[in-house]
Design goal:
This protein is mainly α. It is built from two helices and no strands.
């Protein structure tokens, strides 16, 4: 599953953030922290 931001759709931040957090322990910690921060910036509201 690859999440895509679309103008007329919802971005389900919380489930995506949770899945990334759980699956990303083996990547560079700096990259992991950056992605988590960017995902956290988005709200779960409609775009």
């Amino acid at each position: 599953m690859t999440p895509i931001l679309v103008p007329d759709g919802n971005f389900e931040r919380d489930p995506i953030l949770k899945r990334f957090f759980e699956a990303s322990y083996n990547i560079d910690p700096v990259v992991r922290a950056f992605v988590i921060a960017r995902l956290s910036d988005y709200s779960s509201r409609e775009l």
